[in-house]
Predict the 3D structure of the following.
Amino acid sequence: PGGALEQQRLATQVETWLHEAGLRAYLAERAAGAPLLRPLVRVLDLRLEGARRDLDERLAAAGQAALPAVSAPAGTVHQALELLWLDPDPDTAGWVLMLARESDPRLATRLLHEPRMGLEESAFLQSQRQGLEDSDREEFLAIAKAELFADLLPKGILWVASQGHLSDLKPGEQLFAQGRVSDSLALVLAGDVRVLPYEDEGQVVVLAIGQTVGEMGVILCRPRSAEVHAGPQGARLFVLPAEAFEELLQRSGRFSRGLIADLAERLAVSSPVLANR
């Protein structure tokens, strides 16, 4: 560990890690106003976490300080896109190319001339290479903006988009009817929805941006227990079929935890005694 060769290797690899950590911090800042960058932040998180485990162990053995816990933003979006173009996941490369085509066609052209030697291809990457229009781009943006999907990689967002669809409801328009089969759930993206009490007993429950509706019927495999309508401003929803729900729970820990927290909060409001058991 204290040998000259290992010291040189460590110096080079630490420099690379710090560079990527700076890019990650910069992308995280930019992603606040550009949600399509958020999946790339998650890609860099995983790269950095894996490299940190290896480097910290070797740095300790060599008697050197561990990597910093926090890195200052550094670099540019273009540098991050160029780095992640060579990511092993072809869907990440396709996502990079999609963003490059939108932000700087010259960068996209440069990336296309840089071969991904020995790396896999995917249908999405091929479509981006061919310059095909992204019919699902609006769904990509909606999913990337949603906090419940914040831990998804590009591959995960592509999967979610392929499973569900956007739905716009007019003010007061019905989403779910009581007694109907629970064949889907929905994430509120804009506006709100109102869960109407059974036979006018109880209070109307208002579900706003970031909350889900219809998941209890899907989880319990029971018919709808209440009617759900759009609020006075209407609502925009991402609707996911019941058959995709279980796989989504496995793909996204953030979605699972957020769903549990949301259900617990609703239970606390509707039944404080049960919530505190």
Notes: The longest helix spans residues 4-31. Confidence is low (pLDDT under 50) at residues 272-277. Strands lie at 165-169, 174-176, 184-196, 205-207, 212-213, 227-241. The first strand starts at residue 165 and ends at 169.
